[in-house]
């Protein structure tokens, strides 16, 4: 039978227990992080959402960034840029910095990422929908200090570092080509399971393309990177594909009313979308397809997608006509474990609420 602790030993024992509890709490905090409570727009206490935005700004990216930055319960840890809508990644970074300035969030660090695809093929031979500069070709009369763009750490290394600092806590929102995300996996195999989730705008589910016969822009830009991410990341992944974006365009009446307020954010969006909306309306388009904000809306509100399909998908990299197509195993014929959730039938009323919050 064990001996009882003497009265003199009890304070020491209690102190040791208290110290052990403190050390345990610190180890938990350093290892997996402690959830932080904050308040949403309604003043309700909610768990703070940690986010990294991997973007290729881009008009749609700009609107999507404003949506995320408008949410008080979201903490954006970093913005990482990849070549995409802008002809070079440095221009994309300048565009992202403009958005941070408009949002009043110049405190957020911005990192330069991949300037070429994984295989190094230059696919650009045209003028973009978003303008030559990626931001509607609107002069930046109050250009921010571009020295604020972080040149000392590549964006892929930022993803690795942040995922280690906040394991299983970060929602990575990938709105451009997936080159940075794939590079991070190539440099650190363990990163594949360190994100809480990855939200991807890209790919397609019925072979409908917008850059090639069967290729959506972000996957078309770097099919090998998209294949790496879909095949090798182990964390939950949600995909908002091109066809779903087509089905959830914004009616012109809403688009006009959305941008009637006289705020810096509204004026900014009106300016950068002006040339594009005129062209779309002249071409007889019935709606404005705003793809990247759909993906960020899914990240902001898990209930936005009213239909979610858990499927296995990969990316074709060698097809003569189907290079960059996201191939979905709807019939589970491959017998491979599902690796993505396809977001479908989105709640447009809630989506429009989030867009409205983004500009006020």
UniProtKB/TrEMBL annotation:
Pfam families xref list: IU_nuc_hydro
Keyword annotations of the record: Glycosidase, Hydrolase
Positions of the Inosine/uridine-preferring nucleoside hydrolase domain: 51-352
GO terms, molecular function: hydrolase activity, hydrolyzing N-glycosyl compounds
PROSITE patterns for the chain: IUNH
Coiled coil: none
InterPro entries in the record: I/U_nuclsd_hydro_CS (IPR015910), Inosine/uridine_hydrolase_dom (IPR001910), IUN_hydrolase (IPR052775), Ribo_hydro-like (IPR036452)
Signal peptide (UniProt feature, chain positions): none
The family this protein is said to belong to: Belongs to the IUNH family.
Protein name according to UniProt: Hypp6087 protein
């Amino acid at each position: 039978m064990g001996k009882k602790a003497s009265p003199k030993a009890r304070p020491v024992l209690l102190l040791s227990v208290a110290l052990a509890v403190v050390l345990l709490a610190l180890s938990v905090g350093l290892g997996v992080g402690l959830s932080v409570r904050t308040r949403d727009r309604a003043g309700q206490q909610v768990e703070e959402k940690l986010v990294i935005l991997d973007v290729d700004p881009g008009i749609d990216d700009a609107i999507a960034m404003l949506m995320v930055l408008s949410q008080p319960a979201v903490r954006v840890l970093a913005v990482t840029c990849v070549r995409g809508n802008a002809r070079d990644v440095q221009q994309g970074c300048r565009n992202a910095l403009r958005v941070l300035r408009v949002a009043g969030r110049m405190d957020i660090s911005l990192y330069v990422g991949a300037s070429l695809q994984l295989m190094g093929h230059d696919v650009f031979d045209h003028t973009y929908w978003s303008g030559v500069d990626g931001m509607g070709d609107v002069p930046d009369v109050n250009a921010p200090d571009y020295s604020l763009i972080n040149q000392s750490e590549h964006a892929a290394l930022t993803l690795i570092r942040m995922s280690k600092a906040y394991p299983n806590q970060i929602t990575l929102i990938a709105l451009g080509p997936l080159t940075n995300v794939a590079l991070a996996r190539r440099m650190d195999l363990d990163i594949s399971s360190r994100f809480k989730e990855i939200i991807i705008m890209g790919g397609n589910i019925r072979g409908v393309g917008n850059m090639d016969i069967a290729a959506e822009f972000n996957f078309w830009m770097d099919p090998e990177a998209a294949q790496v991410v879909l095949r090798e990341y182990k964390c939950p992944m949600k995909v908002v594909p091109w066809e779903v974006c087509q089905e959830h365009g914004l009616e012109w009446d809403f688009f006009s009313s959305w941008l009637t307020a006289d705020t810096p954010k509204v004026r900014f969006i009106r300016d950068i979308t002006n040339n594009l909306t005129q062209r779309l309306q002249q071409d007889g388009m019935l709606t404005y397809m705003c793809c990247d904000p759909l993906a960020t809306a899914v990240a902001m509100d898990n209930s936005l997608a009213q239909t979610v399909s858990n499927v296995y998908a990969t990316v074709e990299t060698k097809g003569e006509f189907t290079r960059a197509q996201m191939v979905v195993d709807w019939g589970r014929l491959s017998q491979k474990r599902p690796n993505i959730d396809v977001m479908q039938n989105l709640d447009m009323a809630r989506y429009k609420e989030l867009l409205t919050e983004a500009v006020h």
